[in-house]
Amino acid sequence: MVQNGRKVIFLTFMERSFCKHEHIFYTPKKKAEGKVLLVFVLTLVFMLVEIIAGYIFGSVALLADGVHMGTHAVAFGITLGAYMLARKWSRDVSFSFGTWKVEVLGAYTSAVILGVMAFLVLGEAVLKLIKREGVKYEDALLVAFAGLLINLVSAFALSHDDEHKHDFNLSAAYLHVIADVLTSLLAITALLGGEYLGMWYLDPLSGLVGFSVILSWSYSLLKDTAQILLDREMASPLVKELIERIEKDNTSKVQDIHLLRVHHDKYACILSVMTTEDRSVDYYIKRLEGIDNLVHTTIEIKYCPHVELTH
User: Fold this and answer.
1) Which of 37, 196, 204, 243 has the fewest CB atoms within 10 Å of its CB?
2) What pLDDT does residue 239 have?
């Protein structure tokens, strides 16, 4: 087409092939689903045990640990649902760039819930410091040790898997469990200090520490997932590499570039390139060969033989 006296060519290629054009970027993860389901059930059941025991025995540390487990149970549930929905909708053409962001949306939602629950723990801890209510240490310790055991079993179930290197959700789930292990240890330490050293204040203080840990995790997850959902990818080193490859010949200039993450470390890219030479499609395809995490690219080429390019 001729536009404003310039020859404009629109070129599209997918996975370095003209004949293959699919938008299925999602890979089913049934093995990971099974593991997350197991951990979800274990965490959900013992979350209820710890929260109820925390209220009955008057332990904020136990309550904080239970709420912390509860937030991760919610996260595991959302993760499990995201796996299932992403798999179910993976061939739905209404999703322009696949269904991986269903998982990311699930993680963002769980982070919001996590932040709300952190403030519930804070309220309980402050109330306990003011009222200084007694704690049934022996009973609370039994529940806390049982919670630690459940967390260790869950951590073991999730740890033996190479998928951690490629699955953001599975890796995050494993980190959740490790955080639960640490929180359980914190609760046990506070209860032991109150039982044997008379340091009653350790229990509510551990609740304050738990609040800080939970809120920090919530903020970190919100920040990471929001960046993906809002397509804030232009700071990626891939952007610089794409521009350098295209402009290396000194006759081409990238006028516009958009990068979108479609799956973990896989990206789609939209490029607008101005060139003073009449380049073929194969020319730019070869320029971008070898970039494994670039799975879908659309290129607009503007042939402007009389324009002086500046880099």
Assistant:
1) 196
2) 92
**CA R_g for the chain:** 26
Question: What amino acid occupies position 211?
Answer: F
Which amino acid is located at 32 in the chain?
A: A
Q: What is the pLDDT of residue 65?
A: 66
User: Which has the higher per-residue pLDDT, 26 or 150?
Assistant: 150
Q: According to the 3-state scheme, what is the secondary structure of 267-294?
A: EEEEEEEEECCCCCHHHHHHHCCCCCCE
CB 75 within 8 A of CB 173: yes
pLDDT for residue 26: 55
Q: What single letter denotes the amino acid at residue 160? A: H
Instruction: Please tell me the distance from the alpha carbon of residue 181 to that of residue 202, in angstroms, as a whole number.
Output: 18
Residues 107 and 162 in one domain: yes
Q: How far apart are CA 253 and CA 311, in angstroms?
A: 7
Closest CA to 153 of 171, 178, 183, 190: 178
Are residues 301 and 284 in contact, defined by beta-carbon separation less than 8 angstroms?
yes
* Closest listed residue to residue 204, CA positions, set 71, 58, 49, 68: 58
User: Which of 159 and 22 is assigned the larger pLDDT?
Assistant: 159
- Please report which confidence band the pLDDT of residue 241 belongs to, taking 50, 70 and 90 as the band edges: very high
> What per-residue confidence (pLDDT) applies to 210?
77
Token couple for 280: 């073929």
Residues 6+ away with beta carbon under 8 Å from 235: none
Closest CA to 268 of 131, 118, 101: 101
Structure tokens, 109: 């939602």
What CATH number corresponds to the domain at position 158?
1.20.1510
Contacts of 79 (CB under 8 A, 6+ apart): 36, 103, 106, 107, 110, 169, 172, 173
Which of 229, 244, 265 terminates a domain? The answer is: 229
